[in-house]
Amino acid sequence: MIPSTIVLATSNQHKVDELRAILEAHGLDINIIPVTDVWPEYHVDETGSTFEENAMLKALAVFEHTGMAVLADDSGLEVKALHGAPGVISARYAGEHATDAENRRKLLAALTTTPDADRQAQFRCVLCYMDGVRVLFDEGIVHGTISREERGAQGFGYDPLFIPDGHARSFAEFDPQEKNAMSHRGRATASLLQQLHALAHETGHAYRTDPLPTTDALIMASVAAVTQHVAQLRTAISLFVRTSDDAMLMYEALLQAYLFAGFPAALDALLILDEECTAILGTIAWPPAAPFDQQMFQERGAALCERIYEGVYERMIQRLGTVSPDLAQWMIIEGYGKTLARPQLDTIRRELCNVAVLAALGRDQQLYSHVRGALRIGATHEDLRACADIVMEQCGKAAGLRIERIVDQLLGDRS
Ligand code: ITT
Predict the structure, then answer these.
(1) Counting atoms of ligand 1 from 1, which one is nearest the CA of 171?
(2) Residues 25, 37 contacting (CB under 8 angstroms)
(3) Which of 261, 281, 325, 410 is the most buried (most CB within 10 A)?
(4) Kind of pairing, strands 162-164 and 135-146?
């Protein structure tokens, strides 16, 4: 199911008109809201160096402001003889506040000596869709050449100079429907809609239009950290920092990612947390590292591990000890004592993050123990099903089903 309302994160009225017409041509009855209707002062500094980054910056800003499903478009013209320029700065090619006409004049001037055979170009459009759980990107490209003079009065931007391959007319000489059917924007939208339909079909889940609850954001960020999905990670972190008054909880959720995906993954995630906290809250200083107190880590690690593994705890440690005494000790001291038993993030939410991460990484055996462990320490079936939903939406149906199957199995065992 596609959401019934989508906010378009653009201040360019031509894009609004085109995207609205394209979505309508797909037979979709969507309430399209230009962002300026709900946020008149909308402005995003396009500081990214790629279309993807800028599309995400726009989508994120609008999602955070409105909490609604958002579609952002970053697009531009890439000219081969100019090594891809104007590219991401297409709108600002002739200066920060340049008009379309000034940009076209500059382009023609840059290509004065370029022979007809070398005037190939492409329009590229990257769309970013965001609804609080899902962050999707898609791209559309249309190839053509740059004419020697402007032709036609339709469209906008570089349309009067762009002759799509296989045609003798410029985009500005096309009817809007004709342009939309073959344009970079039309192609990117068709492809993104396919993704949305496929995911909706796969998961059977409706799309969120409400802001993420903080527990969901912790789970989503943990999964994104270990799967190194930067866009999802930034979204979850940013939403969490804006909606929760305790950024330390996110710090602890991300810190433990090193246990599952190594130090670089945890470090990358914490760097993003740092950036978001600095941008949203101003400077942020984490408390100094706790002194390495081996005895305390040993005691609290063993206590937590015993709660998670209950009856199999002794056997597991013994078995691990015969395979590798070092590893057995690290598991209790490093894993549980030093990392997983840190006091800020409560055990239930921490365990839900672990469950989600293990499902996302396909660690089936550990997952089983941790789903059972989560139930033992007080997580409910509903908590675990909600956790499965998030994993499903982020990593696909199979990953989320891993959790659901174990929950069903454990429920069956009890009844
Ligand atoms: P928003 O960022 O608010 O969406 P913008 O116009 O600044 O509006 P971009 O940063 O994505 O958007 O720049 C897109 C520029 O690329 C646009 O201003 C045109 O110059 C050019 N462009 C993109 N799509 C085009 C199209 O279909 N026809 C002609 N020019 C196009």
Answers:
(1) 28
(2) no
(3) 261
(4) antiparallel
Same domain, 243 and 265: yes
Establish whether 116 is a catalytic residue.
no
Mutational test site, ligand 1, from 88, 158, 183, max ligand atoms within 8 Å of CB:
158
Residue 134 pLDDT more than 80? no
Cα-based torsion angle of the residue sequence 209, 55, 52, 32 in order, rounded to the nearest 10 degrees: 60
Cβ pair 215, 246 in contact under 8 A: no
What residues make up the domain containing 67?
A: 5-200
- Of all atoms in ligand 1, which is nearest to the CA of residue 156? 29
- Give the residue whose CA is nearest to atom 18 of ligand 1: 91
Joined together, the tokens standing for residue 238 give 């940013």
Candidate from 12, 22, 106, 182 with most ligand 1 atoms within 8 A of CB, to mutate: 12
From CA 203, how far away is CA 360, in angstroms rounded? 15
Enumerate helices (H) and strands (E) in the chain, giving the number of each. Answer: 18, 6
Mean pLDDT of 314-342: 93
- Domain limit, last residue, from 173, 200, 227: 200
What lies within 8 Å, CB to CB, of 155 at 6+ separation is 14, 171, 172, 174, 176, 179
Cα–Cα distance for residue pair 28/10, rounded to 1 Å? 20
Q: Are residues 139 and 243 in the same domain?
A: no
pTM: 0.64
C-alpha 181 chain-centroid distance: 28
Pocket of ligand 1 (CB under 6 A): 10-12, 15, 46, 73-77, 90-91, 100, 103, 123, 155-159, 183, 185
Tell me which amino acid residue 394 is: Q
The residue whose CA has the least distance to atom 17 of ligand 1 is 91
* Angle at CA of residue 361, ends 219 and 349, nearest 5°: 25
Taking only the tens place, the pLDDT of each residue in 372-409 is 999 999 999 999 999 999 999 889 899 999 999 999 99
Atom of ligand 1 nearest to the CA of 183: 27
pLDDT of residue 209 exceeding 50, the answer is no
- Catalytic annotation, pick one of 37, 45, 74, 413: 74
Q: Give, for ligand 1, the residue of 13, 15, 78 to mutate: max count of ligand atoms closer than 8 Å to Cβ.
A: 15
Q: Are residues 143 and 87 in the same domain?
A: yes
Q: Which of 181, 159, 170 is nearest to 90 (CA)?
A: 159
